[in-house]
Amino acid sequence: MKRLSSYLAFFLVCFQTIAQKTTKVEVDATKPLVTIQPTMYGIFFEDINFAADGGLYAELIKNRSFEFEYPWMAWKHLPEAETRFNTQNELTIYNNSKGNPNNPRVVRVDKRDEKKSLGLQNEGFDGIGIKKGEKYDFSALARLNRGSISLLVEILNSKDQVIGSTVLNLLGSNWQKIEGVITATDTDPKCKINVFFKGAGQLDIDMISLFPQDTWKGRKGGLRKDLVQLLADLKPGFVRFPGGCIVEGRTLAERYQWKKTVGKIENRQQIVNRWNMEFKHRPAPDYYQTFGLGFFEYFLMCEDIGATPLPILSCGLACQFNSSEMQPLEELDPFVQDALDLIEFANGGTDTKWGALRAEMGHPAPFNLQMLGVGNEQWGEEYFERYAIISKAIHAKYPNIKIISGTGPASDGELFEQAEKELPKLNAQIVDEHYYKEPQWFRDNATRYDNYDRNRYKIFAGEYAAQSSAVASPENKNNWECALSEAAYLTGLERNADVVYMTSYAPLFAHVNRWQWTPDLIWFDNLTSFGTANYFVQKLYANNAGTKTIGIKSNGQNLTGKDGLYGAASVDEKSNEVIIKLVNTSADAQRIDLNISGLGVKTNGKVISMVEKDLKNYNTITEPSKIVPTESVISIEKGKTMLTLEPYSFKVYRIKK
């Protein structure tokens, strides 16, 4: 009976294989169609989910300059008092506004008894991630007003054991930077740091800082290495920064002002992060922007990873979901000047004011800025009239700079339709559209730009992400259905590369314990990071874009979702390869009778596959490799081969011509 069951199962598989529908797919590699822009697949960065401070920016101390609304936030006095009151007044906040108006608060230490223990403890960002054997740079700005005081700096693991320390001495009454190196003897994601004051006297201290030495490119005070590497691996065509709604601010006073993010670190004026209390389900009252990661660092990172910088500037209109505060049109000059000065900062000679500052910061050569955005997600006449003034001024002085505008927060509806009518009147060049929709929408809209007016402005799909639950829902997951649906949608964007010039997923980063918004492309904790299934879909497109599109059809029609099959194809003129992307969103395997014109007698290539039978599955910090690409080889005779697309699969074929 057991043998009979085995025979029945075998014949059932054979019958299913024979009955399986075969789709004939024709790829014409002899006729390149339209150019795929080098900026086609890029990155959108916004400081949400602790993406900058506590994330990409490798500083490990939270509230290092005591400028949070409550200056002692993230700090404890040592020894811990029985009450919350500091009755001895040995550790107080001193206003140094005359010395540094941008960061006026410093800690004044009055150590009256040299035998008494006195110090500060910092909790870091959800703890401090420390790795055994790694070296960490401690620094602070301090001045000794009287007496003799030294600093004992200790790193404590989660068991309150000291796993590294250093001693620093102070000399003189002028502000000085004191530095030491700590080598860790243990690995722990939940460490703390103690700063003890030894001796007796009075000192002022500020900018207490701890950085790993193993940063991106080994830069002191630099960026977190693993996170930048994940970005570099995407081979992005551009990086859009610093947002996003961060650009707008809840009020104009809280908007992102790039001039406050350049120059010496200690002189950069921090502000509250607009995402700190935006969502009742994920409040983050300790979320601020120190701007240690500022516009210079953004430009430098873009250069490092070979991406075109795309800075976005305020148009004089605060977030319309919050205050909708507007700068009067007759007082818009500061916003216009910010745009002109930014171009000078990025591209100007060292004999210009802002070019000289760039050189002073360590980069005499220009950053080759080619485009910038005016406004983020604004809408209505208030936006259009401000955009018109700023864009006119930019093009009057810098006619070759491309300007990005936007259609508001949605990809359809009344506000979107209004933008579609008004932006052509303003000679819009590239327009940012955002898509936060359910997975089915992405599958249904692969034809969105097939009949788009080729004489209109170009499209920047600046923020897209399939939502597994609902927009801004804390229940959203980076599951395979979302990623697969995005893969299907991107076939339509690539097919219409003469219209769509840029695309980027959003948001980019999220700390696993400190997030406000899901889903996100890359997740991290204090020591590790991983790419989601969505990340690998984006990576496969960006790493396999090609230089020109070519036709890929079945029965003379584009592959746009019939029977769940989607496709796009291109040629890479640099490597002399044909690149085919096929997506199967159906629950059934599909046989593809592939015929590629323009190949040799026998050609070889590789197949990069993403296959997952459970649409609800997703990668996690503890299981980061549930859904990752795999590679195999392929051989094709006279341009013909039979392929099998497993259910719920995405495959990229690179074949030598």
Give a quick summary of the entry.
The protein is of the alpha/beta class and 657 residues long.
Outline the low-pLDDT stretches.
6-18
Domain count: the total is: 3
> What is the 3D form?
globular
Radius of gyration: 28 Å
Q: What structural class is derived from the secondary structure elements? A: alpha/beta
Features:
single chain; 657 residues; alpha/beta; Immunoglobulin-like; TIM Barrel; Jelly Rolls; 3 domains; 9-stranded antiparallel sheet; 8-stranded parallel sheet; 11 helices; 33 strands; globular
Structure description:
- The protein is an alpha/beta fold and 657 residues long.
- The chain folds into three domains: 20-35 and 549-656, Golgi alpha-mannosidase II (Immunoglobulin-like, Sandwich), CATH 2.60.40; 43-58 and 216-545, Glycosidases (TIM Barrel, Alpha-Beta Barrel), CATH 3.20.20.80; 75-212, Jelly Rolls (Sandwich).
- 19% of the residues lie in helices and 33% in strands.
- The strands form six sheets. Strands 3, 4, 5, 6, 7, 8, 9, 10 and 11 form a nine-stranded antiparallel sheet that branches. It has an eight-stranded parallel sheet with strand order 2-12-15-16-17-18-19-20. It has a six-stranded antiparallel sheet with strand order 24-27-28-33-30-31, with helices on one face.
- Strand 18 (430-437), helix 9 and strand 19 form a beta-alpha-beta unit.
- Helix 5 packs across helix 7 (380-397).
- The longest helix is centred in the N-terminal third of the chain and has 18 residues, at 2-19.
- It is globular.
- Residues 6-18 have low confidence and may be disordered.
- This is non-reducing end alpha-L-arabinofuranosidase.
- Its EC number is 3.2.1.55.
- Pfam families: Alpha-L-AF_C, ASD1_dom, CBM_4_9.
- It comes from Emticicia oligotrophica (strain DSM 17448 / CIP 109782 / MTCC 6937 / GPTSA100-15).
- It is an enzyme of class 3 (hydrolase).
